[in-house]
């Protein structure tokens, strides 16, 4: 059974269509990459899948998350699905964190929700132990200091690691990662990507990974959907899509990634250079 089944999903702003008839299935433990340039509709597709579209946007079609319909449901009906079934890591950790709350308090919230869901009593000491354990898992040094810190007092990479810890502490079965490394510097990007890859593997989660960066997606996804102007133009196993793309648009994306990689490596790009 699919954990996430999207059928004929369309998103519009008034009379302006933004996403057109997107369909895909995501099984438990599977990793799916949504790839495309800015404005291709990949993030809208992901946010519509959990009912997190911005005001003024309208979704049509069908989205079944753990067998429950998302499209057309009031927000209160979707609250039980968020965290327990699906959690999101956003592009900008600054926007995802409350600037007026200490990081420890923000991490405590999903830990408490999960404990209540599982019928566990959580003492103050047990809560602190779980907070520290999650910060250890996302490789944050000096967790005692971080728990007392405000978001503006830590680096962008540390903020994103805290956001990842908060998402996973909910105990989801599906993690949606929307451009999770784009706002970070290059060295931090690689560290956070490797961390995310390992955590998803350790937890046995399904992953919906959204990015315009083909080399990043090729590292982390099993299967890929390529989107352009709100439409899926190609889909298939990541290895096949990135080494033998069929659609002209996918070919242009792969060629651009190869040229960039060749420039970084100081080599001449060839058809055999994988992104």
UniProtKB/TrEMBL annotation:
It is a peripheral membrane protein. One of its GO terms (molecular function) is ATP hydrolysis activity. Keywords: ATP-binding, Cell membrane, Membrane, Nucleotide-binding, Transport. Signal peptide: none annotated. SUPFAM superfamilies: P-loop containing nucleoside triphosphate hydrolases (SSF52540). It is found in: Cell inner membrane. The keyword Aminoacyl-tRNA synthetase does not apply. Its main location: membrane. Residues 4-254 form the ABC transporter domain. The keyword Cell membrane applies. PROSITE patterns: ABC_TRANSPORTER_1 (PS00211), ABC_TRANSPORTER_2 (PS50893). GO terms for cellular component: plasma membrane. It comes from the Bacteria. SMART domains: AAA. Pfam families: ABC_tran. Belongs to the ABC transporter superfamily. This is ABC transporter ATP-binding protein. It comes from Paracoccus jeotgali.
């Amino acid at each position: 059974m699919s954990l996430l089944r999207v059928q004929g999903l369309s998103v519009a702003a008034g009379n302006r269509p933004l996403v057109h008839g997107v369909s895909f299935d995501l099984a438990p433990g599977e990793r799916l990459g949504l790839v495309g340039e800015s404005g291709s509709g990949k993030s809208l597709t992901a946010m519509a899948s959990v009912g997190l579209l911005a005001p003024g946007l309208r979704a049509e079609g069908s989205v079944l998350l753990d067998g429950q319909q998302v499209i057309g449901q009031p927000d209160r009906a979707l609250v039980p699905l968020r965290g327990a079934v699906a959690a999101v890591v956003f592009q900008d950790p600054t926007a995802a964190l409350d600037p007026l709350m200490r990081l420890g308090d923000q991490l405590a919230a999903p830990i408490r929700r999960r404990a209540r869901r599982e019928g566990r009593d959580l003492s103050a000491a047990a809560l602190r132990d779980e907070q520290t354990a999650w910060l250890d898992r996302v490789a944050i040094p000096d967790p005692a200091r971080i728990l007392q810190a405000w978001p503006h007092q830590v680096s962008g990479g540390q903020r994103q690691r805290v956001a990842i810890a908060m998402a996973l502490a909910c105990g989801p079965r599906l993690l949606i990662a929307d451009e999770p490394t784009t706002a970070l510097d290059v060295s931090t990007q690689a560290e956070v990507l490797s961390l995310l890859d390992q955590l998803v593997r350790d937890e046995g989660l399904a992953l919906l990974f959204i990015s315009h960066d083909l080399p990043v997606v090729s590292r982390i996804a099993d299967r890929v959907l390529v989107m352009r102007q709100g439409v899926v133009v190609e889909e298939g196993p990541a290895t096949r899509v990135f080494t033998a793309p069929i659609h002209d648009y996918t070919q242009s994306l792969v060629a651009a990634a190869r040229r960039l990689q060749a420039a970084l490596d100081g080599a001449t790009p060839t058809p055999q250079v994988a992104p």
